[in-house]
Amino acid sequence: MQKAFVYLPKDYEKNDKKYPVIYILDGEYNFSFTADAVKTLSSWTNRMPASIVIGITSNKRDRDLTTTPDKNWQPPQPIPSAGGANKFLEYVEKELIPYVEKTYRTEPLRTIIGHSLGGLFAVNAFTVKPNLFRFYILLDSSIWWDDGRVAKRAMNYLDKNPNFKGRIVWIRDKIPHEVWFPINTEFLAFLENKRPAGFLAGLCV
Q1: Contacts (Cβ under 8 Å, ≥6 apart) of 189
Q2: Is it the case that residue 135 has pLDDT exceeding 70?
Q3: What is the pLDDT of residues 5-48, one digit of tens each?
Q4: Residue 195 contacts by C-beta under 8 Å, 6 or more apart in sequence?
Q5: DSSP labels for 36-59?
Q6: 143: part of which helix (H) or strand (E)?
Q7: How far apart are CA 22 and CA 48, in angstroms?
Q8: Domains of the chain in sequence order
Q9: For the chain, percent helix, then strand, then coil, each to nearest 5?
């Protein structure tokens, strides 16, 4: 198992409660401020439940967070190692999550947070293992990757599963809509108008 960062709620050792778990990708960079935010929102303002935070690390993010692109599509810059997302997801599902849930007191309520290619990975995780996580937080997600195929698969799944329940929060820089990739506009419109009633969406764009 690769290195992972762990934050436990301040009263974890003083009780026997179980806690939701938040998994943050690019943990090398994003773990500390995520843990601080969770601590603040849960301890000081009571705006969210106290939670365990796990920072997921990667040896090679361009490989581990990207899906295999269609042979007729090329990224803006060559990424010869691209395409390891499903293998990395298998590690998260079969090694990391079981370790966390064996070692710590956890509720079966998992959130995944990803920025850029991490957001792409989170959407792909939904299409491959839709019940692995309950909540998805996407920060400027690179859903343009592979001509938007991952986001299209997500929309297709939700279309075919109208009773699916969960929550997605999509946070994107305030770039003018006219310069968005077409898939961004399509995905936004879907989340606003066509998503299942039980799949709640928080959109900050």
Answers
A1: none
A2: yes
A3: 999 999 999 999 999 999 999 999 999 999 999 999 998 777 89
A4: 158, 201
A5: HHHHIIIIIS-SS---EEEEE--S
A6: none
A7: 12
A8: 4-204 (3.40.50.1820)
A9: 40, 20, 35
